[in-house]
Amino acid sequence: MTPATATKKDAIYFHELHSPVDTMVAEVHAGLSLQQKVLSPKYFYDKKGSELFDTITRLPEYYPTRTEIGLLRQHVQEMAGLLGMHSFLLEFGSGSSTKIRLLLEAVRPRIYVPMDISREHLIDSAQRLASDYPWLTVHAACVDYSIPWDIPDFGPGRYNAFFPGSSIGNFDPDSALQLLKQVWRLVGRGGGLLIGVDLKKDAAILENAYNDAQGVTADFNLNVLSHINQRLGADFDTGNFRHKALYNTGEGRIEMHLECTSDHRVRINGNAYRFETGETIHTENSYKYSVDEFHGLAAQADFVPVKVWTDPDGLFSIHYLTAT
User: Fold this and answer.
1) Nearest CA-CA partner of 117 in 89, 101, 140, 88
2) Bridge partners of 266?
3) What is the pLDDT of residue 3?
4) Across 261-283, average pLDDT
5) CB-based contact 110:137 (threshold 8 Å)
6) Cα pseudo-dihedral 179, 184, 187, 190, rounded to 10
């Protein structure tokens, strides 16, 4: 951990830990230079992308958010008892900070640290929380989880992490393991992790969740191109691509792609990239786990499972683990 230095923004403290534009240029170039073109899902999350994702979470096809919230509401007191009162509470991928509200009153953390890659969305959400909970000290951190990072050292005490939304599934198993090891380093021995994990289930349920009838997920997927246009001066025409999501049974993951609908070229920062009809840009994976599979992964990062909660339909799970 690093010394607790931050910029004061009204009612919150803000820590800028995000990667610079130069890193984005290099990553986009590397991804689009591959035979199977890829873009990191972290680039979904500019302000518009974060707002679109908030809309996705309320769609009838998208079961993860409402199922996880239902589990939190039902078991919040038990979860709070495991986390302990007055700890330091770190939230990964805080987004609009909806789920954390179910924990804050029960845990009453000494300091709450929401972490997200979308700077404006993070600040707005953190400011609202600080206004709604005047007793709460909020240190918001803009973080890129795909690279090593650190948080301020807030002093001695118990550190807990809250990682909702099954965002751990956006990382391939090796990267997920490295992220869990990073979480371990942040909470330290004896710290806790409360994490949401999407369960394996019928492929039709999964594919419907990522191909909603209103087309919001399609807009969210295409927004990654608009974000690159805005940040890097690229000339993507989103009309040349269409959203595609499918369940890869062998890999146990949903894959999101942008499928090219016409031959064309795109220019980004002085480089030109050729796209042919039918080829795709792989924009996201969302791995699904059985309870045992996830416990096995967590064990490799020296986390011990203490409690798991699942819904009656076996759609979603929340795990509480301790760092040993």
Assistant:
1) 140
2) 273
3) 43
4) 97
5) yes
6) 150
Separation between Cα atoms, residue 242 and residue 224, nearest integer Å: 12
Token representation of residue 229: 């246009």
pLDDT band at 159 (very low <50, low <70, confident <90, very high): very high
Q: Do residues 27 and 40 make contact, with C-beta atoms less than 8 angstroms apart?
A: yes
Q: What share of the chain is helix, strand, coil (3-state, %, to 5)?
A: 40, 30, 30
Q: What is the DSSP string of 300-320?
A: HTTEEEEEEEE-TTS-EEEEE
Q: What is the pLDDT of residues 68-98, one digit of tens each?
A: 999 999 999 999 999 999 899 999 987 667 8
The DSSP annotation for 90-142 comes to: EEES-TT-TTTHHHHHHH--SEEEEEES-HHHHHHHHHHHHHH-TT--BEEEE
CA angle 175–53–285, rounded 5-degree value: 30
User: What is the β-pairing status of strands 7-9 and 264-268?
Assistant: unpaired
Q: Report whether pLDDT(193) > 50.
A: yes
Phi, psi dihedrals of residue 90, rounded to the nearest 5°: -105, 130
Mean pLDDT of the chain: 93
Query: In whole angstroms, how far apart are CA 6 and each of 10, 16, 113, 120, 138?
Result: 12, 8, 12, 16, 11
**By percentage, how much of the chain surpasses pLDDT 90?**
83
Fold of 60-201+288-323: Rossmann fold (3.40.50)
pTM for the full model? Answer: 0.93
Q: Please, which residues have CB within 8 angstroms of residue 226's CB and are 6 or more apart in sequence?
A: 48, 236, 238
Using CA atoms, how far apart are residues 318 and 320, in angstroms rounded to an integer? 7
Question: Domains of the chain: which residue ranges?
Answer: 21-56+205-287, 60-201+288-323
CA distance 324 to 302: 6
Q: How far apart are CA 144 and CA 139, in angstroms?
A: 16
- Tens of pLDDT, residues 206-224: 999 999 999 999 999 999 9
